[in-house]
Amino acid sequence: MTAVVDAGGEPWHRVQALLERRLDDLPPGTLLEVVTADRQVNAALPGWCAASGGTLLATEKTADTTSFLLRVPADTEPHVASIHLPEIS
Known about the structure:
Elements: E1 2-8, H1 12-25, E2 31-36, H2 39-52, E3 55-61, E4 66-71
Parallel strand pairs: 1-2
Antiparallel strand pairs: 2-4, 3-4
C-alpha cells in the first residue's frame, strides 16, 4: 500500500502534525510519499523520520518540490503528544 501527502508549501509544524496523525492511521510497512515545496520541511523531515522509527527510502528534488518516500515503522508507539498522563493530586 502507498499513501501520498501533498504538503504543498505548508510549514513544517503543520506537516509534522499531519504526518503524526497519518502514522497512527496507516498499517505498518506502508509506503508514504511526502511532497513539499517548503525548505523547512526538506530540512526537518529526514530527522523526524529517523526519530519516529520510519525509514527514509528515497528523496527526489525538482525545481519546485521535493518528494520523500518513507516506510511506516513496523512497530508504532504512541506519540508523546498523544500520551495521557494521570493527574497528580
